Amino acid sequence: MDKLFESAFNYSSIGMALVGLNGRWLKVNPSLCRLLGYTESELLHIDFQTLTYPEDLDTDMTHVGNLLKGEIDSYEMEKRYIHKSGTLIWALLSVSLVRDENGMPSFFISQIQDITARKEAVLQRDTFLICHTTCWPPAAHKAICGKSILHGRLCWAGLPMS
Fold first, then answer.
1. Rounded distance between C-alpha atoms, residue 11 and residue 29, angstroms
2. Full domain range(s) for residue 138
3. Does the keyword Phosphoprotein apply (predicted)?
4. 71 plus 91 within the same structural domain
5. Highest mean pLDDT among 38-47, 112-121, 123-132, 135-144
């Protein structure tokens, strides 16, 4: 079973990690290393808090606290990580807590799926909808959508209204 788990862990297409109760990475798979831009050795010397986008950290830590108190068995959230290059990576994080035979918290199992492309597609769609389905005065349209309109106002479905 250990060999089977090891293979599943190492060959998974999504990032996987075993994380200590203090947030330090204990074991990381190659997919997580590629996602975050760090080597395994580099990740094992830092904690997940260091790589979490600051605005997402409180929510993550609240979930961690709820896991440790036994209020929840697992959690899932969308959050941002800071890639080694400094770029933001959107991820779907799923976490569960492993307890020892006495029921005491031992470590976390984290699965981290890259959703950056999906988030960018949603942003592009929303920007398109805002720019093409909302009435804006010409100056506001240029400021928000980055281009001028020729006549009057841009309105529903991109059709000018009189």
1. 8
2. 120-158
3. yes
4. yes
5. 38-47
